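Hey, can you fold this one?
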Amino acid sequence: MCPEYLQMRQCRINIDRAIHNKYPKAMARPREFDRDEALTRATRVFWAKGYASTSTEDLLAAMNIGRQSLYNAFGDKRKLYLEALERYQRETSASHLERLNSGASPLGGIEALLLGVISEDDSVRALGCMGVRAVCEWGCRSAACDAAERSGPKAFQAFG
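Sure. Predicted structure:
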């Protein structure tokens, strides 16, 4: 037999397998990672480096997931960033409000807020504010700022 005949025969076999597959399409595997933990890790990377300086490889390494898992769970890098920023904004707003409401008086609440903003951890303090970084990186008219703006009022209404 000539090699050309074998190649044609192999192509025909592959086509036949695709058409006559006895097994239904397999269901997608369940996620093998904690989405919430992966988002926390991605938030930390974006907070430290900003959106533009964070590569997909940085995210994959920090989140300890594969590329396809990132896309399946979060969409793309930009959507992941917006979700991380919204979560950061929601959590920081909630903690600020808790501090404001924790004082015995309004002045005590302000004091608690200011003391609470000064993080005990130097590495966290060095990161600064992810929301301010987003405004500096994206400008005031961007999806990043819109995400922060959307999550801010929700957090304040919860303590309303």
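Residues 77-102 form the longest helix (26 residues). Let me know if you want another pass with a different chain boundary.
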